[in-house]
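Dear colleagues,

As part of the handover before I leave the project, I'm documenting each prediction I ran so the next person doesn't have to rerun anything. This entry is a single chain, and its sequence is reproduced below.
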Amino acid sequence: MTNGLDPVLPAGRTWRDWVVDAVLFCAAVFLGMVVLGVVEEQGELSGRVAELDPLLGLVTCLALWWRRRFPLAVALIGLPAVALSTSALPAGAVIVTNFALRLRWRQALLTLGAYVVCMVPSGLLLYGRGADLFVDAVFCLAYLLTTFAWGHALRSRRLLLQRLRVDAERARAEHERRLADARRGERQAIAREMHDVLAHRVSLLSVHAGALAYRTRQAQAGAGPALDSAEVAESAEVIRGSAHEAVEELQEVLHLLRAEGDGEPVSLLPRIEDIDSLVADARATGQPVDFHPELTADAVHELRSQLHRTVYRVAQEGLTNARKHAPGAPVSVCLAGGPGRGLTVEVRNELPASSGTDEAIPGTGAGLTGLAERVRLDGGTLDHKVADGIFTLCARLPWSAR
C-alpha cells in the first residue's frame, strides 16, 4: 500500500525481499552475538541485564521479519530492547534505518526522539555506573543519527526513482497522445484530399452519365431523337476519360501524402494555372463558367506551392457544388489580389428554383467544412452565403511568397 509518492508498506515480498531479509536477520544475529561476547568478556554488564540481553537481542532480530509491513510497530518493539541490550544494537541499526525509510517524516522524527531519550541514559542501566555517560551519549547519538541519515537517504532515492517513473509514464502518455493527434491529422488530410479529388471527378461522371440516361429515356418516350452509335461512343469515351483522370489524380494525392520531408514533387501539386483546365472540364459538361483571372503570371509564380493547392481546391469545390446543386446555372470564378493586398478566390452561381435533372448528385456534406479547415491552416478565411438567389463562396488568403 502506497500513498502518493510515499514509498511505505509494500503489498507483499518478492524473492529479492526474502533474500535481503534473510541476510539482514543472519547478519544481525551474528553481529549481536559478537557484540555480546565482547561486552561479557570485559565483564561490564550487571547481572540481571546480562541475563536478559540475549533474549532481548533475539526478539529484536526476529522483529526484523515484519519491518516492511509494520515499521512503526517494529520500531516500538525494538525501542526498549535497543536501550537495554547490547546484542540488539546491530538489529537496532536496521530498525532505525527502516523507520526513517518507511514512516512519514513527522512519525520518523518523533520515533527518533524517543530512541534518543531512551538510549542516551542507557549506560546507567547497562553498566551500573555513570562515569562514561558522556562517551555513551556521544556513541548513542552517532549510532542513531548515522543510521537515521542512511534510511533518509534511501527514502530520498526511492522517492526520486518513483517520481522519475511517474514522469516517464506521463511523458510516454503525452507521446502517445501526440502520435494519436498526428494520426488523426493524417486521416483528416487524406479524407480532405480524397474528397477534393474524387468529388470533382465523380460529379463530372455523374453529369455525363445523367445526360446519357436522360437522352435515352427521351428517345424511348418518343420525345426526342435516339442516340446514334457515334454519340454513344463519344459519351462512353468522355466517361472513360473522366474515370481515368480520377484514378490518376487519386494516385498523385496518395503519392503526395506518403512523401516525407521537404522533397515533395511539386509538379504533382495542383497549381493556380491548372484552374484553366478545371474550367475547361466544367464547360465540356455543358456548365456555363465565366473565369476572371486578375493575377499576373509573375505574381502567381512567386506564391508558395501550398497556397497554389488551396486556391485550386477552393475553385474546384465551388464548381463541384454548383454542378451538384445548381446544374446548368451560370458560374463565375474570379481570382484577384497581389503583394500587400492578399489573395481572393470567389465562386458565384445562381440557385435555380428546381434542378434540371431527375436526381441530385449525392454528397457527403463535408466539403465546405474541410475546405474551411484547409484555408484556416493557410492563415485565411472562408465565407459562403446566399443573397438574392446567388450563392457566393469566397476565400481570402494572405499573399505568401516562397
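The CA atoms of residues 349 and 391 lie 5 Å apart. Residues 1-9, 260-267, 355-364 have pLDDT under 50 and may be disordered.

All the best with the project,
I.
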